[in-house]
Specification:
- This protein is mainly β.
- It folds into four domains: 29 residues; 93 residues, Thrombin, subunit H, CATH 2.40.10; 216 residues, Dipeptidylpeptidase IV, N-terminal domain (Methanol Dehydrogenase, Chain A), CATH 2.140.10; 134 residues, no CATH class.
- The protein is built from three helices and 36 strands.
- The strands form eleven sheets. The chain has a four-stranded antiparallel β-sheet, with no helix packed on it.
- The longest helix is centred in the first third of the chain and has 33 residues.
- The termini are far apart.
- The relative contact order is 0.10.
Length: 534
Amino acid sequence: MPLRLALLWLPLLAGAASTEVADWQKQYDAWYWKAPATRLENLRWSENGEYLVFSERGSAHVWKQVTCASGQVRPAFDPTTIAARIAALSPGQPPSAKPPFTRVVPLDDGRLRLENDTAGWILEKDGQLTSAKPGKAPETGASGRNRSVGRENLLSATKLGEHSPDGKWRVTLKDGNVLLLDATHPETARALTQDGKPQDGWTGPVSWAPDGQRFALWRERIVPIRQYTVVDSLQGTKKDIPYDKPGDDKTERIPWVFSVAAEAPSSPGREVLPLTMNTDRLDWTADSRRLRSQFVKRGFTGHGIIEFSADTHRWRQLLVEEDPKFVYTYGSRYRYDLEENQTLWASERSGFNQLYLVDLGTGRTIRPVTTGPGIMKQVVAVDAKAGELLYFGLGRSPGESPYHQHLYRTDLRGRPPIDLTPGDAHHTVEFSPGRKYLVDTRLPRRPRPGLHLARFRRWSRVGDAEASAPWRNSRRLAGRNRFASTLRIATANSTSGGSCIAPTLRPEAEIPGPRVHLRRTAGLVRAAELHFLE
């Protein structure tokens, strides 16, 4: 009986679900097909970063030019006039409604270069057009998910090569063993090892200490990878693919330190260097007293730095991030050496990924650099001279989605960060050359119902998007027209007196004030603004 009742309810439930889907599709189509896009496309900066050109999304004819110093936004040119002048310069070409250029590049003096892959034209300030050679096509960014926390900076005084820095010694590798030769008597070679084999021996490159008294090598034990036979049932073919199973033995490299004197070579024990997934870096310090190497533990349960001391002839763990269950090494590891004995180190020790200033001489944490709620997602830029840091963070803004990304600026003293991209949205930025200006593209849950202003000195709007259908808060639609773009200009200097690498707010506006919210009327979505800071 209960089963029969359940079956009787199925048509009603199916009808409700069908109505819900139809309602969603109607809402989606109303926005997707009728609202014009406002995302900036074909964005190009001049080399000095003072001019910006972009096209409106979906249009190859409408281009606009921004003079960043004044904040002036104007049409870059009249498409009809330009088409006529290009046709006059190429009388043999048949007329076409499509412009012959695909790229518009601003020059440092305010002129424009219109070009494709084979031809180019210079548009003078007075409107005259002359033929020119095309420039280099812009590089296409790598697609796919970005798993990097930021570009690392690892300092090293290591000298690579067979010959020592002072030219007195030469290291050669033969059948997996290490031979040391006196440069003045190359016929005499001293064997430093004898148990090496081609599949289990020492390998380069030779990493010399600056004083030429010690060098480091890897001892690599090569283990063949398990092979699986895969059958393609459609083609009727077979092929073998490499695939490790959990617990399989793996190729492993261990660092070794040798001396040109009569010292025994040294390598770390398992208490210092556990079973590893991989190891890399053989970095000597400038005083030749320490060698540092990095590792990732097998099973992805940790990563860290180990160090060899030339004074004590011992190895130790300098910095380690580990957890018996899992450490997201390739999504959270980050190291940026500010100087030889100071580094910025990413750690999840607090439960959130944050940056810490660490003393590499002792391994002691000096202070946290990013703190508070949320996580440090990605380091954008570090200015060691000015003592400033730009990074993307998540979950710092109360009341907003914790998945919305914001750009923050902070110093290396651990002060509260400044949100450079306020607003309840996911923000991505593109910097001008020299990082004086940036374009902030916002992706909210839905088109913003109003114009959001922080305490900016001056602002100018790029364009509006007309939405013929109102948005309903109960829906989260994956449409194409949910973008807004903001250009912010920084002229203030850092507190240390150096020039800032990043957009900065004036001191009196370091913490953005209350934002003004203007209601949307007649379906108008103000989805693209240019904001300028004086």
